[in-house]
Amino acid sequence: MDVDAPGADDKVESPVRALEGGERVIRSELAFSGKLIKVRVDEVLLPGGRVAKREIVVHRGAVAVVGIDGDMVLMERQYRHAAGKPMWEIPAGTLEEGEDPLECARRELLEETGYTAESMEEVMHFYVAVGYSTEVIHLFFATGLKKAKPSPEEDETIRAEMVPLDQVLKMVRSNEIEDAKTIIGVLMLLLRDKMRSKGQFLSVRDPR
Length: 208
Prior knowledge:
The structure is a single chain. The chain is α+β, with helices and mostly antiparallel strands. The protein folds into two domains: 8-58, no CATH class; 62-196, Nucleoside Triphosphate Pyrophosphohydrolase, CATH 3.90.79.10. It is 24% helix and 39% strand. Strands 4, 5, 6, 7, 8, 9 and 10 form a seven-stranded mixed sheet that branches. The protein has a three-stranded antiparallel sheet with strand order 1-2-3, with no helix packed on it. Residues 1-14 have low confidence and may be disordered.
């Protein structure tokens, strides 16, 4: 149909208006409830009047921390059952119910790596898989690192080590690092350094 033809505006729904209208939930069913996630099946009414189903993974959200010490980055190595192999990652963890992301970031950094930070700066947050999950990760930069004692969960075996940033970048380029939050964190660190060289700043919150 020619949208410029007379009367076309009355017959063709604007994609922008349809997106802004969203989807209205008309029925929701809890299909699974576990310790970490829940799975919800929603029946939704689309802007055009059709009905569709959405399978949603409900998650409390998480934090991830880029620990920086000069030109070194704090990295972790641990086995991930979902991937079926050991993975390189930055420290991260799930929010407790009602927990402030900053407090969670400090807690996870200490528990997993045995480090504390003088300054924690939230630089961004992002959806992990917006097509089917509610999980949002809050990304922090941690500086002024000091060694303390780690206390990982009973089911966690984590090796923490400082890795030169240049080496971490090579690991990203070679796809040795496959974890999305870690790749995002490293690239955001590069962006921060580039912006700082121009007198600009990258932060959604003041350093705390």
